[in-house]
Design goal:
Structural class of chain B: alpha/beta
Radius of gyration of chain B: 17 Å
Oligomer: heterodimer
Largest interface: A-B, 25 and 29 residues
CATH topology of chain B: Rossmann fold
Number of helices of chain B: 7
Order of helices and strands of chain A: HHEHHEEHEEHEEEEEHEHEHHHHHH
Distance between the termini of chain B: 21 Å
Number of strands of chain B: 10
Largest sheet of chain A: 6 strands, mixed, barrel
Distance between the termini of chain A: 27 Å
Low-confidence stretches of chain A: 70-74
Largest sheet of chain B: 6 strands, mixed
Shape of chain A: elongated
Radius of gyration of chain A: 33 Å
Number of domains of chain B: 1
Strand content of chain A: 15-25%
Number of helices of chain A: 14
Helix content of chain A: 40-55%
Strand order of the largest sheet of chain B: 6-7-8-3-9-10
Strand content of chain B: 25-35%
Number of domains of chain A: 2
């Protein structure tokens, strides 16, 4: 029997019982669509996080005070010391490294921002002019912090977009004075609206020179130093050099932690990748269920078509051919079912993408391939038993409908 | 041509042994017209299934076209059935979702014959059997006589050497039954061996050779010159 004839005959028997066929294809396509949509969501989440990290800045190395050990208790705790602060001079010492492009020291505090009768609690970032480039921020109006001496505690500030709107409405803010804690600051710029980026809403920030923030909060330490490597390949070197410089300045004590953005990114990437796989796997179970359904319905089909099978045998079809006919039916069912599922899945992903435009929803190719392969595989695998049963029917009994 | 030597067939029904065929010895020549008659349970249907290679003997040998077909495997049996044997059933056994032409085409599809040749042969047969205007009808749109004619066309499309007919007129009224019978007898001229199983003595009497069976044995085997 020719392949085209086999397929034609099989599709004829499928058309012969349309309800059964449509229901089975529906089960198959829902399974495939579930895999496609769920992995698309997982992949979307993964890409979203990666994009968020990229918006934080590129080739970043982050220095934080204190030693973070992966296990056990840090040496500072054992000896009863708190970690030594990272000072502004520590930060300046980083200039010695040739592979560091720029860096921005960072302090974080909270203060009351007020203008006239309006006041609001805000997060205050202390930094330098380089922060703008390191963190890939953009200005809407005016200037960012002026470059110059890092110890210069001039009373200027840059407002987050929402802060500006809340305090000034549509008025021009640049050049006006606001009160931050017990000091007066002149507004020199307003940040462009950027929305949320990694849990920090730049729209709700106020940025002041780092020395000014030390005076305002009466501290001398830094919360972080953000370092931008000259390029991607030297990130490792930057990490080592930054650590060496700071350890040297801290009398040989390793009381700083240097982490790379890549390390964090890879961790997220792994977690979200695993999550996508897991969700896809769960969805694939529905494909297995669809496979069992195909087996069930195939068995019914064999029972319903006993006479036809008997006739085919009488007309000279060997058992092998009858098996092939049932395989072809299963393959057609799961093949068309998975095509419909792909359409459904891509449609669903598109709709989700429309509802959450910030989420880059796209099903990964491996999930699409795996879904179709699983659908075809289970469909054919689960038709083996019914097909063998059909092939083994005794033609005399089958013709008599027994 | 066809030879059964010491063929026995027993079934186990429950805990009882039923001997459907006991030590049958028979031989048919090409172009013979044979009727097998007998009451139900006499073994005539088992005999027909045996001849059609749908059933295997427990004992004995079956020679078809001087080849031993007793011990062939499933694949080989199917091939012999496809090429040498045609079946006509009492209840027609047409595939309901296929049209008359497609039903006739079915054995050729199983044999893997190219589409053009299939079309041509179906057309010729449909014309010969006066079914040309019914080619695209499904079995449920055909009368009993037309259905049996489609079934005969299907049984002969592979040019078999033997045509086995199991009560071919059983589901038809008398007039149509005669028509179908004449059609079958017309095939004898082509050299086909026609084996007709019936319990109708009047129909059986038309055959050139009449075999009566009872309890799995051949009671009588009479030839009459036409």
């Amino acid at each position: 029997m020719r392949l085209t004839d086999t397929l034609q005959f099989a599709s004829g028997s499928l058309r012969g019982s349309p309800t059964r066929t449509v229901l089975m294809m529906l089960a198959m396509s829902i399974g495939v669509a579930a895999v496609v949509v769920l992995t698309a969501l997982g992949e979307g989440a993964r890409r979203y996080v990666i994009e968020q990290f990229a918006s934080l800045g590129t080739n970043l190395v982050i220095v934080l005070p204190g030693r973070t050990e992966t296990a056990g208790v840090g040496p500072g705790l054992m000896s009863g010391q708190t970690p030594r602060d990272i000072t502004l001079d520590d930060a300046l010492a980083l200039r010695r490294s040739s592979v560091i492009k720029r860096f921005a020291p960072l302090t974080v505090g909270s203060a009351t921002l007020s203008r006239g009768a309006l006041n609001r609690e805000v997060v205050v970032l202390g930094s330098t002019s380089d922060l703008l480039d390191v963190r890939h921020m953009e200005m809407a109006l005016g200037r960012f912090l002026p470059p110059g001496d890092i110890h210069d505690a001039s009373s200027v500030c840059v407002l987050g977009n929402q802060m500006k709107r809340e305090l000034f409405g549509n008025e021009n803010a640049v050049g006006q004075w606001v009160r931050l804690g017990d000091r007066r600051f002149r507004v020199i710029g307003v940040l462009a609206s950027q929305g949320e980026s990694m849990g920090m809403r730049t729209d709700e920030l106020v940025i002041i020179p780092v020395a000014a923030s030390h005076q305002l909060f009466n501290t001398s330490g830094l919360f972080r130093i953000l370092i931008e490597a000259k390029h991607r390949d030297v990130i490792e070197k930057v990490t080592k050099e930054a650590e060496a410089i700071l350890v040297e300045r801290h009398s040989g004590e390793r009381d700083v932690t240097v982490i790379t953005q890549d390390a964090i990114l890879q961790t997220f990437d792994r977690i979200l990748g695993a999550l996508t796989m897991a969700v896809g796997g769960i969805a694939a179970i529905s494909l297995a269920v669809a496979g069992v359904l195909i087996m069930n319905v195939m068995l019914i089909a064999v029972a319903q078509r006993v006479k036809e099978i008997g006739l085919l045998k009488a007309l000279g079809a060997p058992g092998r051919q009858i098996r092939h006919l049932f395989f072809a039916e299963a393959a057609l069912l799961s093949g068309i079912g998975s095509l419909a599922g792909l359409l459904l899945g891509y449609g669903g992903s598109f709709i989700i993408g429309q509802i959450y435009p910030s989420l880059p929803v796209a099903p990964p190719w491996w999930a699409v391939v795996a879904a179709c392969a699983t659908a075809l595989g289970t469909g054919i695998l689960f038709s083996v038993w019914p097909a063998r049963r059909a092939a083994r029917l005794d033609p005399v009994a089958a013709l008599a409908g027994r | 041509m066809i030879e059964l030597q010491n063929v026995c067939r027993t079934f186990i029904v429950g805990d009882q042994k039923v001997e459907a065929l006991r030590d049958i010895n028979l031989s048919f020549g090409a172009g013979e017209y044979i009727s097998i008659m007998g009451p139900s349970g006499s073994g005539k249907s088992t005999m027909l299934n045996m001849l059609g290679l749908l059933d295997r003997p427990n004992l004995g040998t079956y020679l078809l076209d001087s080849g031993n077909v007793t011990d062939l495997n499933d694949e080989q049996l199917a091939r012999v059935r496809r090429e040498k044997i045609g079946f006509v059933f009492q209840s027609f056994h047409l595939v309901p979702r296929l049209t008359a032409a497609q039903n006739v085409e079915l054995p050729m599809i199983l044999a893997g014959i190219p589409v053009e040749e299939r079309r041509a042969r179906v057309q010729v047969l449909m014309q010969n059997y006066g079914l040309s205007d019914r080619a695209d009808h499904r079995p449920d749109q055909l009368s009993g006589g037309q259905r049996q004619r489609v079934a005969i066309a299907r049984a002969t499309v592979m040019n078999p050497t033997v045509l086995l007919a199991d009560e071919p007129t059983g589901n038809l009224d008398q007039a149509t039954g005669w028509e179908v019978l004449k059609l079958l007898e017309g095939l004898l001229a082509q050299g086909i061996t026609l084996v007709l199983v019936t319990h109708d003595a009047e129909i059986g009497a038309r055959a050139h050779r009449q075999i009566h069976m009872l309890d799995g044995r051949i009671l009588s085997d009479e030839r009459q010159t036409p």
